[in-house]
Amino acid sequence: MKYAYWQNKPFTTKDFIDAHTKAFEYFGGKTHEIVYDQDRLLAVDENYGDIIFTEEFQNFKDFMKIRVRMCRGYDPESKGKIEAVVKYLKYNFAKNRTFVDIDKFNEDCLLWLDRTGNANIHGTTKKIPKEVFSLEKKYLLPVSQTFRNVPSNSILTYTVRKDNTISYKQNRYQVPKGTYEPGKTVRVRNLDGIIQIIDKDTGKILAEHNECTLKGKLIQIDHPERDKTLKIDKLYEKALNVLNNTNEAKIFLDRIRIEKPRYIRDQYSLICNTCKNVEKKLIEESLKYCIEREIFSAVSFRDTIEFLGEKYKKLENQKTEETTDISTPSIPQKYDIKTQIRDTSEYVKGLEG
Known about the structure:
Elements (H helix, E strand, L loop, with lengths): L12 H15 L5 E4 L6 E3 L6 E2 L1 H10 L2 E4 L5 H19 L7 H16 L11 H8 L17 H4 L7 E4 L2 E4 L11 E6 L2 E6 L5 E6 L7 E2 L12 H11 L4 H13 L4 H11 L5 H13 L5 H30 L16 H9 L1
Parallel strand pairs: 1-4, 6-10
Antiparallel strand pairs: 2-3, 5-6, 7-8, 8-9
Helix pairs in contact: 7-9, 8-10, 9-11, 10-11
């Protein structure tokens, strides 16, 4: 069962969300899960399986309580169905059709879907979509409220977001990883189309980008690629070794394999990179911390190592300060000592010989 919504201008995230509302009205409800192709209107980064969504879409997703499934990047097998529908609409409805205005175009499209697009026998299923949908419709979830997004004020102060980006003129510009801190703000300077992102405290230029004239885009610093040279089993063994080959390590890695089957390689690679130059004790404590709280994610494991590492560092500094205070004797600020005073004539006699 197909639905289409056309615009005569590029889609923004707001338009994208409005199109959902129109689709839910058309179908008479929403599905339990929605599958998406990767697009910068809804997702900023795959983040090893812990996907970072755009702020507006994250608000919409939470409000509507929909489960999202993202197609992998450059994976036509997982998104072929929707691409086929796009071609079907372009070449069977839009091609050679006289355009009057966008409202009339959308109205004609819905009429065409009703008499042709959803009324003809489907080439693969050999069934009529409208007839099958009459049976499936009862399984849709009701949509009782309309989503209203609350605009963020972060663009006014250029706050660094958790995904290490700043929002500037309706686009997202990346800053180096690790820049983000709670409440971190930066200065942005536009020099004839060159966007400079400057650290507010040090004055250091964190990143430079060419200004993007489009809207809703992510301007990246670089495009790191996944390491595809290792097989999953070998990567599992490598991750197990860096986690000291303990029972906790096996439990942790096996649960990741179950919960994030499509991101195993990314998750294991991140674990291997995270554990470089990390003490064995800290790795084991971090594993224990995650398992006790049922947190099975490489990203969360990395954050736990950073958190516990800082915690142990502070404790060591406190112990060092206490030891210094105990071993160093207190020095009196003033001694009650009177020095001997001589008459200057003795020095004169000495100089005269």
